Amino acid sequence: MDPLSACLLLLTCLADGPSSVQIVGVNVVTVGIPYGFQCIANCYPDCKYTWTRGNVTSQGHELSFQLLHVVTAGPSNIQISGPTYLTYGAESIFICSARCYPACSFSWTVSWEGQTLSKAQGSNISVTPYASTVLEENLICEAMDTVSHLYISSSLSLPVASISDISIVGDSTVTMGKSYMFTCYAACYPSCNIVWKYMGRTYEGNQVQIPIYHQGDRKIACHLEITFNDYTKIEPLTCEATNTISHSISTSVRNLTVIDPISVHPSSAGLPTGERPFSLQCVGLQNPASITWLWNKLPMPASERVLFSSDGTMTFNPLLHTDDGLYQCVVADGGPPIQSVGYQMQVNYGPYRVGISGGDILTVGVLYHFNCSVDCYPACLLTWTWGNVTSHGPHFSLQIEELIPPQLLTCTAVNPLIGVELAGEETIQVIAGPTNIQISGPGFLTAGVASNFSCSADCYSSCSYSWTLTEEGLMINTAQGNTIAVTPSTSVKNVFETLTCTAQDSVSHLSISSSLSLPVASGPDAVSILNPYGGLVGGLMYAQPGSTIELQCVTTCYPVCSISWFYGGLLLATNSSVSFTPVAPPYTTPLTCVALNPATKHNFTAEVTVGVSDGPKNVVIEGPASLEIGVTATLTCSADCSPSCSFQWTVYGKTMTGSVIDITVNRYISEESISCQAQNTFTGNTATTNETLRVSGTITAALCTRL
């Protein structure tokens, strides 16, 4: 259908006293083409029909109709949705809506001071401010009906939130103790909040709105007055402006060079040296009202060793190496106190406490290493003296090739800056050996297994070695040489054997011994699973559903074995005793106890199958469907049981046992009732099933036997 021919038309048909009134005809019409409509209703007697179209009415159940011109609706109710302001450098989205029939088309115009900046089509538009100097833009949306071509428009005046041209005005070089004024300027619209940041602190200055316009911008000025009391050489001063609408932030930084007129200098000649007098002086202002001394930023009190004078001098008598640190003076002279440039004092001291480490008894032919330690600043120069031999540095190595009488080893420390020296001495005694005897090998023995051990010692020029092996005070083996293999008997259990090595020097014939006490590891040879009463548990055991089983794993082992329980292949516990509730199904699960010797890593295993009782369930009698008089019939009773069931029959009012019975009917009856009861052999639980069998033929006696 041609959209230009579309219209909305309401036809109404009224019928007096009817039911189910309906109009039959088309729903869409075209201008200039005639159409027919019918009005149908259920009436008795006949209905009277009235048609209404706009302000026109007619009678009869039929209506002929021809539309001569187009009917349209709208546009109306135009609205622009979006933010209430624009932000320079950022896009803002606006949406235009209106009520039209059949539809509206939309066009946009963006203007500034009567000048068109941009145009767009569609219900949406993205607007970015034209320039940072634009304070406000005008946004117009025009909605036009697509048929009538009538239109309606709406407009918004949108302020542009902006911030630019931020700068700080003021000195770049400042002097401690003086006050300085700094001003921060920022071009903001509609306004900005300004704060200052200096040395980790935030300040709010005296902010003013200056009515000076420059290229459409509003300049905002913020003043800050600072009195500089702390010396930092160069420190940035930051002005931070935040737009009150867009919350965008702009900053300006000025690096301030701080000049401190007050300083601390040594007034004593020479370097600061421990155990000597030394003085510092506060220099800068003439005759200050008061001077306070700081040591590492904290006030420094006077003492018998530290004296203060009125001319700004502080004297140490004597100076100690613990006086290292930063020294400053704080001067008050009618204004704010001024803190001086600091003096970092490093006290030169020492040498103190010269020490030699490395041993004082040496064995001929063995290389020894010595270290010399000293408390000194700057680092001392160290010189070693051993007879006619000298060496420099903190380390010294010495190997003596023959027996000599005791001799001094000397380390001399010299402070290279102040020339003070101090010596440390060690008297060295030389022996021919043996010394430093050691036995190497495993920490235990294993019954029936050979274990190898070796013995070493420092001797000049060589050592001979002998071994003894004792058990509970009795010698059981001897050997010569520096190695031995020890194999305890397999019958040995829970004992220690003592292995002793004796080294004898081939020159001095002196000897030295060392011993090891070695436990003999044995087992596990067998593992048993016991119940709480100490009874041995066989290969299969049963428990009732939901009950708790308590068992113990017992073995002979040295050292004590570790015990691990596994249930269904998964680790259950790591104690010798275990308490658990079996899981069903499955109704039989393996339970394993593993004993592990921690020394030999040998293990032994015991296993029991744990069953969970179940049933009887599904009791069934199997056999012929009917009995014949005088003919023997075999009947079988079965049930689902764990571990097993016993069976009891009731036939002719008598009882029989067994899962299979033979029955012969020898009396005339029409049917025979038979019951079978299954009883769980572990829990005693029972279940019964009954069968009624038809009997045919005639005989006077009956015989029943059990298989």
Short key terms for the protein model shown above:
707 residues; mainly beta; five-stranded mixed sheet; 61% strand; disordered N terminus; disordered C terminus
Task: Provide the structure class.
Answer: mainly beta
- How much strand? over 45%
DSSP helix count?
A: 0
> What integer is the average pLDDT?
85
Basic shape: flat
In total, how many beta strands? 64
What is Rg? 57 Å
Fraction in helix: under 10%
- First-residue to last-residue Cα separation: 99 Å
Ranges where pLDDT stays below 50 over 5 or more residues in a row are 1-9, 208-217, 699-707
Please describe the biggest sheet, giving its number of strands, its sense, and whether it closes into a barrel: 8 strands, mixed
Descriptive notes:
It is a single chain. With 707 residues, this protein is mainly beta. The strands form 15 sheets. Strands 8, 10, 11, 13, 14, 16, 19 and 20 form an eight-stranded mixed sheet that branches. 26% of the residues are buried.
Write the layout of secondary structure elements.
Layout (H helix, E strand, L loop, with lengths): L10 E5 L3 E6 L9 E9 L6 E5 L2 E4 L2 E5 L6 E9 L4 E2 L4 E10 L2 E9 L2 E7 L2 E4 L8 E10 L5 E19 L3 E3 L3 E11 L2 E7 L2 E3 L2 E9 L2 E11 L6 E10 L5 E11 L3 E4 L11 E6 L6 E6 L2 E2 L6 E3 L4 E4 L8 E8 L5 E2 L3 E3 L3 E9 L3 E3 L3 E11 L3 E6 L2 E4 L2 E5 L7 E8 L6 E11 L3 E6 L4 E2 L4 E8 L4 E9 L2 E7 L2 E4 L9 E10 L5 E11 L5 E4 L9 E4 L5 E7 L6 E6 L2 E4 L3 E4 L7 E9 L6 E10 L1 E9 L3 E3 L3 E11 L2 E7 L2 E4 L2 E5 L6 E10 L5 E11 L6 E4 L1
Parallel strand pairs: 8-14, 15-22, 33-39, 41-47, 49-55, 57-63
Antiparallel strand pairs: 1-4, 2-3, 3-6, 4-5, 7-9, 9-12, 10-11, 10-13, 13-14, 14-16, 16-20, 17-18, 17-21, 19-20, 21-22, 23-24, 24-28, 25-26, 25-29, 27-28, 29-30, 29-31, 32-34, 34-37, 35-36, 35-38, 38-39, 40-42, 42-45, 43-44, 43-46, 46-47, 48-50, 50-53, 51-52, 51-54, 54-55, 56-58, 58-61, 59-60, ...
